[in-house]
Amino acid sequence: MRIIEVTDSVSLKRDLDAGTSEQREAVDAIIEEVRKRGDQALFSYTEKFDGAQLDALLVEESEFLAAYEQLDPGVLKAIREAIENIRDFHQRQVQQSWMTTKEDGTILGQKVTPLDAVGLYVPGGKAAYPSSIMMNVIPAQAAGVGRISIVTPPQKEGTIPASVLVTAKELGVTSIYKVGGAQAIAALAYGTETIQAVDKITGPGNIFVALAKRAVFGRVDIDMIAGPSEIVVLADANANAQYIAADLLSQAEHDERASAVLVTPSSDLAEAVKTAVEKQLETLPKREIAAASIRDYGAVYVTKDLDEAVDVTNELAPEHLELLTEDAMALVGRIRHAGAIFVGPYSSEPVGDYFAGPNHVLPTNGTARFSSPLCVDDFVKKSSIISYSKQALKQNGASISALARLEGLEAHARAIDIRLEDE
Amino acid sequence: MRIIEVTDSVSLKRDLDAGTSEQREAVDAIIEEVRKRGDQALFSYTEKFDGAQLDALLVEESEFLAAYEQLDPGVLKAIREAIENIRDFHQRQVQQSWMTTKEDGTILGQKVTPLDAVGLYVPGGKAAYPSSIMMNVIPAQAAGVGRISIVTPPQKEGTIPASVLVTAKELGVTSIYKVGGAQAIAALAYGTETIQAVDKITGPGNIFVALAKRAVFGRVDIDMIAGPSEIVVLADANANAQYIAADLLSQAEHDERASAVLVTPSSDLAEAVKTAVEKQLETLPKREIAAASIRDYGAVYVTKDLDEAVDVTNELAPEHLELLTEDAMALVGRIRHAGAIFVGPYSSEPVGDYFAGPNHVLPTNGTARFSSPLCVDDFVKKSSIISYSKQALKQNGASISALARLEGLEAHARAIDIRLEDE
């Protein structure tokens, strides 16, 4: 792990994988085929890419029952607790429609309407994270979305992991379709005989899924295309080096391109964390991935004081930020750019990944400068409401026409004038 | 104007101009040149494209004073009234940061932080709309954005229209730079000696501006790339055909590709509006543009009843929707997709373009299914806050570790365990 004295500008930015032209062409061809042949295309791609011969795309009731049999009761309890926490947090984000009235009869307002339908992509195999299902489904449900569908590639035997089925069922979502890749995104965007089209597609996926989401964007909405995960720990001399090392490694195990960074004014802490990272790495199951991440994208920035450490942190604009300093809560107001802020020694980043309540879908790659965690607002849209009375138009019509004519838009002005002339 | 009985699906969608490959290459080259040569590139492109030889990019105080001299006092009054209304509406959109606490010491929250800096593009010449400045600057100011810059191409003489300068000055924005096109977008995204980089770029522009915005998206945030304007009027037999015709034409005069549509169960009204549109067109200054729009993208859909008219309207998901029916306000709840809803006979669409208060930057091309008017939220970002106490981690640590291990992420589990072992 590199220890660096900050002298110049710092950045977490890595190039996003934009796909090769072969990949983009393959994705376009798959989308075209799904539009043309519908379900038949889905069945044949699933056989080709996932090795599964299916009779039906929709998961059956009996498969949910079997999944509950398989799941450890302790895990089921944890899933239920997490759902409750995440639901509680997201309910607090719900915005109300509002209206305001004036004495002249004017009514202005903002109507909040849930999206009609959304689709969630759940990756297959080891990346079929139950927590992703919670983090995407719960804000959509809190928003009041009427129809939520999940697509996920089946295993060779045509099955879906028990933890996925149980989590979805616990959330009340049973429209789960056994299809993955670009073909699943095409089905959600355009609809097939079995899968109804949706208005927005969210959830992580591999490069083919990301390219397909980009290709259908505009026809439907999509969430962000996330980059590799990041953590920045901002710590002072009294912070626990073992905790920090463990937290850095919890990001590093995600991906060889994940980035784990410590920013501290203490060169003693810098050395202690470096040593602890190396030591803890030794026994980690995913040590090869984590070691590559630490080597290529890990760093300790040593600053001249805490103020400079705050500046460096804001410049990095990290996805996850831990504050392990004295009176950490008082620093929150000085953090201008971060997806999620974990305050104090017991707020380890995994607390937020699974359990505490806030969303784990967060802006990466420096986009926390202008982007937000996935939230209820991402599953509603707003409409302005404007109701002018005769009196209100009479009072203000001349000003409105004047502004229209200032912009050279005579028909705009006449639409006002024709109503005033009627007097 | 075509009168159509609704038999099948309807749509307002038109292909967006994605630019030619020559245009995209030209834009990429301009961006590269601005990154390399900074202000010098801005001066030479401004000479080349706008025919203006400038000594300085920044508008000077004396130019604002001269602009006030030029402006009609009635127009200035209208600008001030509009600013007051728009500010009042957008202030109501401001979201507060919030926190919630639990007895075990847990603190969860959502911090709302304004963007550091935004840039507004204002087109040149006849499209230099003061209303665009108000509609982009006011939500950014209500959000608390610290630094707002305006870029706009100068006229040949090196000047900026008086209405633009006065509107900006009335809003308190004086960082106005005389540069337009892709070069202005590049300057806002990357910064030059004179123009500081921003976090988000908003505002309309021609195809070169749109392509440049797409090219820098990701480095900075951008607003939507808007399609041509649209209006749908939903009216019953008692609606005033002259009002409707005037309102349809007020959209049609914007652009040959604008779309103006009436949806009504009354074939008498359909005929009356068709006749009124033809008649009103005759004396319109922009009659050629408006006539082309009505011919190519105008339509009257005649439905079997009001319920079907509501369904057709939701299917169209228009940018602007006028409800000219009996008890129009009661219909608002049934409108699921529309950028702005104008209720009743005196709420002509231009009321919202300039004056009433809600934003005139609205989702086009059917995207009202999932997009919202420009608003204060577009100029802030949120950060989640998670603070767990020792007690809270002790109580919940086992569940968190169980979920981490369920997903095969051992380092995540150990980051929790190491803190519990310390007990």
TrEMBL record, chains A, B:
Substrate binds at residues 229, 251, 254, 320, 353, 407, 412. SUPFAM superfamilies: ALDH-like. Belongs to the histidinol dehydrogenase family. NAD(+) binds at residues 121, 183, 206. Pathway: Amino-acid biosynthesis; L-histidine biosynthesis; L-histidine from 5-phospho-alpha-D-ribose 1-diphosphate: step 9/9. One of its GO terms (biological process) is L-histidine biosynthetic process. It comes from Alkalihalophilus marmarensis DSM 21297. The active site is at 319 (proton acceptor), 320 (proton acceptor). This is Histidinol dehydrogenase. GO terms for molecular function: histidinol dehydrogenase activity; NAD binding; zinc ion binding. Binds 1 zinc ion per subunit. Zn(2+) binds at residues 251, 254, 353, 412. Its EC number is 1.1.1.23.
